[in-house]
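WARN retry 2 of 3 for item q-0093 after timeout on previous attempt; input resubmitted unchanged.
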Amino acid sequence: MGVAITIRLGSLSKGEKRRNRGRLRSRFPHIGSRQAIAGIEKHFTSTPTLALAGTPTTPKDVIATLKAAIDAIDAAAAAEKAFHDATTAQHAAVAKGNAVVKALKILVTNQLGSAEGVLNNFGFQPPKRTTPDQAKKAAAVTKRAATRAARHTMGPRQKAPIKGTIATASSNVAAAPAPVKSA
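OK item q-0093 returned
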């Protein structure tokens, strides 16, 4: 019924076992209960009553109480494991669902458009358009002007008055002498 938790102490030295015994008992309280049951069964089976905290108790009652504590600890450990497993499954399902919703929003936007009514039918919010403030606009204007100056680009209105000119041959060429008639 209970979940058995095995702890390997065999590889530890005696000093390490002594140092870790308190930590192990605080983390796994059923270890002490199991050892107490083993001790009672070994040393007090023939004793009819035990005086625990001034109350006479039979060894069978002590063992039953300790076994109930062990069962409760094991049940809590099983519930904790089930909780962690359920939480892991929940995280995986949420991640998968978020991916589907993201893909669905892209599909809806591409096929049906981004109108507010259409997006609201699917539970999506339309994209919010932020208007830049004056400082951002001014920075954009100066950056644009600097880029145009660096690239030597012009708009259509700046290009309109510029007309191409054909370079003419210079008139410095000497005229050829007239042919001389021979007599």
